[in-house]
Amino acid sequence: MILASLQPRLAGWRNQLPLIWHMAREELVDRHKGSIIGRAWTLIAPLVNILVFVLVFSKIMGARLEGFGAEIDQYTYSIYLISGILSWTAFAKSLSTITNLFGERAHLITKVKVSLKALPLSVLMAESVVYAISMGFFAVFLLIISFPFSAWWLGVPLVFALQLAFTYALGLLLAVLAVYIKDIKEMVAVLLPVLFWTTPIVYVSDILPAGAMAMMEYNPLYHLVDAYRDLVMYHQLPSLSGLAGISVLTAMLLAAALWLLGRTESDLRDCL
Q1: Cβ neighbours of 132 (radius 10 Å)
Q2: Are 230 and 200 in contact (CB under 8 A)?
Q3: What is the pLDDT along the chain (272 residues), one digit of tens a residue?
Q4: Is 69 exposed, middle or buried, given 0-12, 13-18 or 19+ CB atoms closer than 10 A?
Q5: Is the alpha carbon torsion for 178, 93, 121, 162 positive or negative?
Q6: Which residues contact 54 (CB under 8 A, 6 or more apart)?
Q7: What is the rounded distance in angstroms from the CA atom of residue 79 to the CA atom of residue 147?
Q8: Could you tell me the pTM of the whole model?
Q9: Residue ranges in 145-219 assigned as alpha helix (H)
Q10: Rounded distance, CA 10 to CA 268, Å?
Q11: Which of 31, 206, 243, 268 has the fewest other C-beta atoms within 10 Å?
Q12: Please, where are the H alpha helices in the chain?
């Protein structure tokens, strides 16, 4: 009975996949539309970012963290920074784009029978491609400096999948609200930089006072960034309690988003 009831929904999602994949490709292409080298920027931009983080912070500024051996220590701050900022960039760009997605795709939503629940997946697919490319360049850099790899790297895709689920749930909720409350767009634009600087991405959490560290327990991005660093840098199991908390929060946000979308979808399409 349960499988029979799910089959129509699964069929509907399968029918949406070609459109979602096309929109994901379009999302990547449109970023550099009109440029001379076009799609090549999808590779060049992550590579340049990695080089800047490495050269500026390890060579020019000489920023470093100790604990990996004399030859690698000069790059430890760069590794610390990159492992956190790549995931943050994927989150921030995805959330910002999904929040404004219904308004920017109004011409498509009003003409094509596209699932509003499936639409944010195109953004997440595009950002996943950029993240994978960036992590590939990051891995090459680590190989060049002989940084040790371990089986813990296999946990990175799992943490990223949780990050995508959290971004989808929060983004879908904000996207629905943004159709009715125009201030949502500006609110997200203002709060993302605040969240960036209140998450230990460019600084180490050890410098924070005890009170601030206690507040970090309520910051889902802190747990995600910390999990990436545990896997990539320290070759250890991340805090399962932190990741479990994000999973619970994701489920709550998703339930709220789907409930709100279900209640307002017909009106939402009319508003667009």
Answers
A1: 13
A2: no
A3: 444 444 555 455 566 677 676 677 666 666 656 554 556 666 677 777 777 777 776 665 555 666 555 456 678 888 888 899 999 999 999 999 999 988 888 777 777 777 888 889 989 998 999 899 899 989 998 998 888 889 999 999 999 999 999 999 999 999 999 988 889 999 999 999 999 999 998 888 877 787 778 888 899 999 999 999 999 988 999 999 999 999 999 999 999 999 999 888 777 777 76
A4: exposed
A5: negative
A6: 75, 78, 82, 141
A7: 10
A8: 0.85
A9: 156-180, 183-197, 210-216
A10: 24
A11: 206
A12: 2-30, 41-54, 70-73, 76-99, 101-104, 106-109, 120-144, 156-180, 183-197, 210-216, 220-232, 240-271
Torsion of CA 99, 137, 193, 96, to 10 degrees: -10
Domain ranges within the chain, ordered by starting residue: 37-271
Residues, the chain, total? 272
For residue 149, count CB atoms less than 10 angstroms from its CB and return exposed for 0-12, middle for 13-18, buried for 19 or more: exposed
Token pair recorded at residue 149: 């790899």
- Sign, CA dihedral 107-109-112-117, equals positive
- The answer to whether 220 and 166 have CB atoms below 8 angstroms apart is yes
Residues 6+ apart with CB under 8 A from 34: none
Rg of the chain over CA atoms, in angstroms? 20
First to last CA, the chain: 37
Q: How far apart are CA 252 and CA 161, in angstroms?
A: 17
